[in-house]
Amino acid sequence: MESHMTVRDVLLPEFVGASESDTVQASARLLLEERANHLVVLRGNDPVGLVSVRRLLQQYVDGDAADTTLGDVMTDEYETITPDISVSAAADRFVGASRPLLVMDNGTLIGLLTERDLLTAPHSEPSDDTIFVEEKGSNPTPIDEATADQGICEACGAFTRTLTVTDGRSLCSDCQDV
Predict the structure, then answer these.
(1) Is 2 domain-assigned?
(2) Is residue 146 one of the residues assigned to a domain?
(3) What is the pLDDT of residue 176?
(4) In angstroms, how far is the first alpha carbon of the chain from the final one?
(5) Does residue 1 belong to any structural domain of this protein?
(6) Is residue 105 part of a domain?
(7) Residues in binding site for Zn(2+)
(8) Which of 41, 111, 158, 171 could hold 49 in an S-S bridge, CB 3.0 to 4.6 Å?
(9) For the packed helices 24-34 and 53-62, what is the interaxial angle rounded to 10 degrees?
(10) Is the pTM of this model over 0.85?
(11) Into how many domains does the chain fold?
């Protein structure tokens, strides 16, 4: 059974946005408060750039955070997609890329799609190639064979290629020992 889920089905229509003239310091605080990893730089309502937590941290390390604006550090190299494309087509866009995709609907930014959004999206009904993992005292958990060993750790939230079900939770190797 093939899934016909679209980006609209998995998109969380929330993103953190700020103006080009906002300082790196204020923007870093905003990302911390919102617990986000990326910030969309806006000119009015239009996206003009993207800034990652990593880029903001680099400004602090370099000692340039106080007077630097988002316009100085943003990248204008980002990709946009529409909400009606398939989830698998969106996933293909992440191959070799490290930035989230801006989801645009009729010229309006409606959300920011990350790899994590795709990995944690609800899945369709189990298909014929789904295997079930059962632990003592728990209900069977469907896991697709293609992704049985990769995904998001339920303890730390990290993506890992070596996920193991322990006590009913999918955990990375670091969190299994905790």
Answers:
(1) no
(2) yes
(3) 74
(4) 38
(5) no
(6) yes
(7) 153, 156, 172, 175
(8) 41
(9) 140
(10) no
(11) 2
Buried b (16+ CB within 10 A) or exposed e, 84-104: ebebeebeeebeeeebbbbbb
C-alpha span between 26 and 36 (Å, rounded) = 14
Q: What is the pLDDT along the chain (178 residues), one digit of tens a residue?
A: 345 788 998 888 789 999 999 999 899 999 999 989 999 999 999 999 999 999 988 888 887 777 899 999 999 999 999 999 988 888 888 777 778 999 999 999 999 998 888 877 765 544 444 444 444 444 444 444 444 456 677 777 776 667 777 777 777 777 776 6
Structure tokens at 112: 């920011």
| Binding region | 153, 156, 172, 175
Contacts with 4 (C-beta within 8 Å, 6 or more apart), sequence order = 86
Tokens of 23: 């300082």
Range of the domain at 42: 7-119
Out of 75, 98, 119, pick the residue that ends a domain: 119
Rg (C-alpha) for the chain, rounded Å, is: 19
Binding site, annotated residues for Fe cation:
153, 156, 172, 175
Nearest one of 30, 82, 67 to 51, comparing CA atoms? 30
